[in-house]
Specification:
The complex is a heterodimer of chains A (652) and B (339).
Chain A lengths: L1 H47 L4 E6 L16 H10 L5 E3 L5 E3 L9 E4 L5 E6 L14 H11 L2 H5 L12 H6 L8 E5 L2 E6 L10 H4 L16 E4 L4 E4 L5 H6 L13 E7 L4 E6 L16 E6 L2 H9 L5 E5 L2 H14 L2 E7 L2 E7 L9 H10 L2 H8 L4 E2 L10 H4 L2 H7 L7 H10 L18 E4 L1 H4 L6 E2 L5 E4 L1 E7 L3 H11 L2 H5 L3 E7 L1 H9 L15 E7 L28 H12 L6 H18 L2 E14 L2 E2 L9 H4 L4 E2 L4
Parallel strand pairs in A: 1-12, 1-13, 20-21, 20-22
Antiparallel strand pairs in A: 2-3, 4-5, 5-7, 6-7, 8-9, 10-11, 11-12, 13-23, 14-23, 15-22, 15-23, 16-23, 17-19, 18-19, 24-25
Helix pairs in contact in A: 8-9, 10-14, 19-20
Chain B lengths: L1 H28 L4 H7 L7 H15 L5 H9 L20 E2 L4 E2 H36 L4 H15 L2 H15 L17 H39 L2 H8 L4 H26 L6 H6 L5 H10 L3 H29 L8
Antiparallel strand pairs in B: 1-2
Helix pairs in contact in B: 1-13, 2-3, 5-8, 5-10, 6-8, 7-8, 8-10, 9-10, 10-13, 12-13
The chains are: A alpha+beta (652), B mainly alpha (339).
Chain lengths: 652, 339
């Protein structure tokens, strides 16, 4: 009986599957027919008009976290967030220069220096700004941003915004006060914000003033919160924020109130798609530019099939292609075939060899410079980037205005460390790497040694102590490289195993590990494991990038608290640290000349000390259908900015 | 029977706990710092104090500084939470928090599970509908030209990795012929409803379903064929034929029923695998399923999500084993599962 029952069940399953098989081709045929029909329609439309819609293929996940910058969003979530939010008081132009958003601010931002050294900025918001739902935006909405960002509830929601730049914000965040004394609501369209003296002067001081409108009901659905100011500072009246509500605000899609060029029509984390439509109430960016593309669809694509998706019209634009062989070349082939075009731009960052500058051979600048001379960086960049890359000679991006204005200075002062093994040997010999392991004069083959002091020797494991008490350090660099990394593979061939390196008497010993492990060793993060706290590797290969705010003040800070986390070169150079600090904290906002002068001095010193060897700086490509017109992109001017200026030819 | 089931369930719980300890320890052996990884992208835009505060908040929130056994006990729901003092673990239905999605795992997985099940149900039915008749046909015409051809093709299908099959199919059907989409789950910006939405979904799922079906044909066809050849060689088949029964009756009523025993375990295994996603196919086609989310979790060091996914697979596998064992008894009365 049971056997019969199971047989019947199996038979039924087969029947159902047969039915499914029977219907599938039929459905497929219908679908194919529909597809063919729509293809024909599209073909007909192409000559006349096409949907006013752009499909953006994103290779990172759409996780749906639209939270403010208080949390970490992934690249695609951030893009969506930026497309639906604008009206920040401070913004950046195409060249990365910081400026007051004239679409938002009425006139100039006035500032007054107070007796205690603090500085008060008064911001007047333009009348007539509204959210996408039509509700007016006033100064209270801007103040609300700070009141939510600095609130204890937001801190509890793991955002952890540091509130130490605004007077009274720290006490508010700690729960010691319910007002932010340094933030005042002056009238419906005016507020003021006072920055603490410790952060002044600061070249980018306007960044402290930056606020954006925040729609309070989205952060407190169960209470009607109102911003008030009774003369002591601003506060929230009518209830309290709680962490759950603040957190939940990140995932509101339907009816999300925002104030940017676009608004969310649909965001589906199930199908990994977001559809944004024009916000009818948007008044334009800082140049008054309004978007014309009615619908933006952001879809997840896989890197492996992204070019095929572009080719078949599943997506219209692929942003920031990096891999020369797998992405850029096939994409450019598409361009050659017609129907597509591209924009290329320089990366604002670079891949690098990073040195630990406080122990082992790499503590000596001559060794770091020798490594640079032993590597043909132009050839390396050319090979790694498959022709789509260049070389930089310092911690800068080629698109930075500082670099653009310093061409002459660079030509006269910055050493490009062009491939020169003889120069490497010369430097090493001048630095004292002239011994064999037994303390005799270097024979010309094998590893070089240098006599070092006890302090220089430190705990470096490979040191040799001679019977006479002299300590010799071998020119043996322990290199931590991440697994499955083509940069590492090329470095092995062109540097570590290169004949020129052996001839120079240098040994570079590679240890392959996960990138997480690499970071642990680089940061010397003993909180993960005690072994990471021990200086072990003198060289790492990884990449770095820059934002519009070029601030290296902490990167080369010599104080212990910054070692590892920020100063992960562990470099202690008074001049470098001072220049990095003074470049931003010693220059008044707007004094571009002084800033540039200090920037150049900083570059000069950095270039001499060479804490990193920049390896390559990519040239990125964004490839798109050729009916997308007026699209121009750079590292500072990303898709969310550029799309406002783009149009679709023959759009419906 | 009941006693056997209870015994097996107790055994399953025991195994589940051991696996959970091992998996938890294994994931925590990975030398990673999820708090730092979370903040890495923001580092250049944060001031040191801000970075440190966020970092410490995250470590605190993630409980990274607590002893590992305590963290395990909390994760399982054997120990109370640090802040609330309440038991809030797997036993209470809380499967952890996804750092990548910034949501509870229980909010992340259902939609992926639905997608995976939808694809796998299609694949399973389609594959069974092809492989069972094909296997029977080949067994009946053993060593014939068609059988040899199928043997050859199934060996190829069985040996070629699914990602190669996927790339070939994509190139042929999506790029060259452009009959089907390269990837995705619905037409971007379509907003279809009703039958249009269903048709659109089918249009998008056809290629991955085809690939997964194609990749699974080889093994099952050969399995059914072998089982049927064994069954057809039995004495009772000769007797049935001698009785003058029609060949169809001999094959489908006598031979197939007896060939079921080895096949049924594989078939049930297939149905159980409906819950588990194919990492390669889902990732290649951007199908937001269990396989893709597991891969994503591992890539982004989202270990609570990866762990929850893995423990779910563990539970499904244990339950599957029980069902398989019970089904033996249903198919073959000679097998007594209550002993």
């Amino acid at each position: 009986m049971k056997k019969k029952l199971l047989s019947m069940l199996l038979a039924a399953a087969m029947t159902v599957s047969l039915v499914a098989c029977g219907t599938a081709p039929q459905e497929k045929t219908e679908s194919s027919t529909a597809s063919e029909a729509s293809t024909e329609e599209v073909a007909e439309e192409t000559a006349e008009s096409r949907p006013n819609r752009l499909i953006y293929g994103s290779t990172t996940e759409i996780s749906g976290d639209l939270g403010n910058a208080w949390w970490t969003n992934n690249a695609t979530d951030k893009k969506i967030r930026d497309l639906i939010n604008d009206y920040n008081v401070i913004t950046f132009d195409q060249g990365g220069a910081m400026l007051v958003n004239s679409a938002v601010v009425d006139g100039e931002i006035e500032s007054v220096e107070n007796e205690d050294g603090s500085k008060t900025f008064t911001v007047k918001i333009k009348e007539g700004l509204t959210y996408n739902n039509g509700e007016a935006i006033t100064a209270a909405d801007y103040v609300a941003y700070a009141l939510v960002a600095y609130s204890p509830a937001t801190l509890e929601a793991a955002a952890g915004v540091v509130a130490d730049s605004v007077v009274g914000a720290q006490a508010y965040q700690n729960g010691e006060s319910n007002v932010i004394s340094g933030l005042r609501l002056i009238d419906d369209y005016t507020y003021s914000i006072t920055i603490v003296p410790e952060y002044l002067p600061y070249f980018y001081e306007l960044s402290f003033v930056d606020l954006a409108p925040l729609y309070l009901p989205m952060y407190s659905p169960n209470a009607t919160l109102v911003v008030k100011d009774d003369g002591e500072g601003v506060y929230l009246d009518g209830g309290e924020l709680n962490a759950d509500d603040v957190n939940a605000s990140r995932f509101i899609y339907e009816g999300r109130v925002s104030a940017g060029p676009y608004q969310i029509k649909k965001l589906d984390t199930g199908t990994l798609q977001a559809e944004l439509v024009l916000n009818p109430n948007y008044v334009g960016n800082f140049e008054g530019q309004m978007p014309s593309i009615e619908t933006l669809v952001i879809v997840k694509t896989e890197s492996a099939t992204a070019i095929d998706s572009l080719k078949t019209g599943a997506v219209d634009i692929l942003d920031t292609l990096t891999d020369g062989n797998l992405e850029i070349n096939p994409a450019l082939d598409l361009v050659d075939q017609g129907g597509f075009t591209y924009v290329d731009f320089e990366r604002n960052g670079y891949g690098k060899l990073q040195f630990a500058c406080d122990f082992g051979p790499t503590q000596f600048p001559a060794v770091r410079q020798a490594v640079a001379y032993l590597l043909d960086r132009n050839e390396f960049a050319n090979q790694f980037c498959a022709g789509y890359g260049s070389v930089v000679d310092g911690p800068y991006g080629l698109c930075m205005w500082m670099y653009q204005d310093s061409q002459e200075f660079f030509a006269d002062n910055i050493d490009s460390y062009s491939y020169d093994p003889a120069k490497a040997v010369e430097l090493l010999e001048a630095d004292g790497w002239v011994l064999n392991a037994d303390g005799t004069e270097y024979s010309g083959t094998g590893t070089r040694y240098k006599e070092v002091t006890k302090e220089e020797a430190g705990t470096y494991a490979l040191n040799v102590t001679l019977p006479d008490g002299r300590i010799l350090m071998p020119l043996h660099i322990m290199w931590s490289s991440s697994e499955d990394n083509p940069v590492s593979e090329l470095l092995v061939v062109m540097l570590a195993n290169g004949q020129q390196t052996a001839d120079a008497g240098m040994v570079i010993e590679q240890t392959v590990m996960s990138f997480t492990d690499l970071l642990n060793y680089m940061y010397r993060d003993a909180s993960v494991d005690a072994k990471y706290g021990v200086p072990t590797y003198g060289m790492f290969n990884l990449a770095t990038g820059f934002t519009q705010l070029y601030d290296q003040s902490y990167t080369y800070n010599m104080e212990e608290e910054y070692m590892g986390t920020y100063n992960n070169n562990f470099i202690k150079d008074e001049q470098l640290a001072t220049l990095a600090w003074d470049m931003v904290f010693g220059v008044e906002a707007g004094d571009d000349t002084t800033y540039l002068d200090k920037w150049q001095q900083f570059m000069d010193r950095w270039n001499e000390l060479l804490p990193d060897v920049p390896l390559y700086s990519n040239i990125y490509y964004t490839v798109h259908a050729d009916w997308l017109e007026g699209y121009d992109q750079s590292s500072y001017w990303e898709f969310e900015d550029a799309v406002l200026y783009a149009t679709i030819a023959n759009a419906e | 029977m009941k006693k056997y089931i209870v015994k097996r369930i107790i055994y399953m719980i025991f195994v589940f706990l051991i696996v959970s300890v091992l998996m938890y320890l294994l994931y925590n052996l990975i030398p990673s710092d999820p708090a730092r990884a979370e903040l890495e992208g923001l580092k250049t835009s944060l001031r040191p104090a801000e970075y440190e505060q966020r970092y410490q908040n995250l470590r605190e929130q993630m409980g990274l500084d607590d002893p590992i056994l305590l963290r395990y006990a909390r994760w399982m729901g054997f120990a109370p939470e640090k802040e609330s003092g309440e038991f809030h673990g797997m036993l209470q239905g809380y499967f952890g928090y996804s750092n990548f999605f910034k949501k509870d795992v229980t909010e992340v997985l259902p939609v992926r599970m639905k997608n995976t099940m939808m694809i796998n149900i299609f694949v399973t039915f389609l594959a069974l509908a092809i492989t069972i008749p094909l296997g029977i046909f080949c067994a009946v015409r053993k060593n014939g030209k068609f059988d040899n051809l199928v043997q050859f093709l199934t060996i190829i299908g069985y040996s070629v990795p699914i990602y190669i099959i996927a790339l070939i199919f994509i190139w042929l059907f999506a790029v060259k012929l452009q009959w089907l989409p390269v990837s995705g789950m619905e037409t971007p910006g379509s907003n279809y409803t009703g039958i249009q939405a269903v048709m659109d979904k089918i249009y998008y799922l056809t290629l991955p379903v085809l690939i997964m079906t194609f990749a699974s044909l080889g093994g099952m066809t050969r399995y059914v064929r072998t089982a049927m050849i064994d069954a057809l060689g039995m004495d009772y088949i000769r007797t049935a034929r001698a009785k003058g029964l029609r060949e169809k009756v001999v094959i489908y009523s006598h031979a197939w029923k007896n060939a079921l025993l080895p096949v049924v375990t594989v078939i049930i295994g297939w149905f159980i695998s409906i819950f588990s996603g194919s990492v390669i196919v889902e990732t290649t086609f951007t199908l937001n399923g269990m396989g893709q989310v597991y891969y994503l979790a591992l890539r982004n060091s989202d270990y609570e999500l990866a762990l929850a996914t893995q423990m779910f697979y563990c539970a499904v596998s244990l339950i599957g084993q029980l069902i398989m064992d019970l089904s033996y008894g249903l198919v073959d009365p000679r097998v007594r599962v209550d002993k």
